[in-house]
Amino acid sequence: VTTLIDDPIARVLGELHERLRHDYRGEVSASIPTLANADHKLFGLAVCSPDGFVSEAGDVDVEFSVQSISKAFTYALALSDRGREAVHEHVGAEPSGEAFSAISLEEETGRPDNPMINAGALVTCALVGGEDAREKFARIRSLMEAAAGRTLGFDETVYEEEQAASDRNRALAHFMRSAGSLTDEVDPTMEVYLRQCSVLVTTRDLAIMGATLARGGINPVTGDRVFSGEVARHVLTVMATCGMYDYSGEWLLTVGTPAKSGVSGGLITASPGQFGMGLFSPKLDARGNSVRGVAASQDLAERFQLHALTLP
Ligand code: GLN
């Protein structure tokens, strides 16, 4: 990873960090003990350019569980393995307008609305190729590692806590199995999904992963192709409409980039052909999005004209 010595983007990130670090709105997630005990003062911002330069400010090296941000990459893998049509027989591409843990299944087909909410992510996990849960998870982890350009850790404690707190997700999985949209058994599906949530990333990783999406599947730091340009476009599209849960519409209005948030306070954005951004701050708003992450993104999108629908 290359950083510039006199870097104007890093200067902006530093100013933003200084201004927003006094914003204490929101609450850390109470879903599992590790997240409930997270240090709410942590705040990291990183931007990765299309040629792989990383600018950063704050706690960019602190590791946290990737949580729902993994959903974008599992979706990329399912699309690569099965193709868009086969995936869309089982999971839709419509914003649900509901919370990430909602039971939002289409009435006629039993499909969950989209792959960025829990129900849809469980279905996507089942669609990933692999003999068993171990192999499927190994493939998802490898894909995230290729997008980040390094080996990623795994938090065994988070995984155990997620398993102990998985009643609702498990219920969703059973429900979708009876509706026919979940093609695999419940237990292995839960294992894949909760393991992917427990992979450890840093804010810098998220910026590079975002830039990989923005570059149409090529990691700009390593130069490796991680998935096809077509897959990147599908994933970015669904991130744009569904990535911020029931804030996705307002996000598109005020920031305007494809994005995905997670319950640990991570946030990834990808401006097609331009930057990837990683943001991390554990306190969440009522929809489950990082308060400082959203505020910083709004500022940066305006400053650098990142809105995907910016007119010439
Ligand atoms: N592991 C969390 C869950 O399934 C992830 C949700 C999220 O990040 N929004 O509830």
UniProtKB/TrEMBL annotation:
Keywords: Acetylation, Hydrolase. This is Glutaminase. It comes from the Bacteria. The keyword Cytoplasm does not apply. Belongs to the glutaminase family. Substrate binds at residues 68, 118, 162, 169, 193, 245, 263. One of its GO terms (molecular function) is glutaminase activity. It catalyses: L-glutamine + H2O = L-glutamate + NH4(+). The chain holds residues 5 to 316 of 429 of the full protein. Its EC number is 3.5.1.2. Homotetramer. GO terms for biological process: glutamate biosynthetic process; L-glutamine catabolic process.
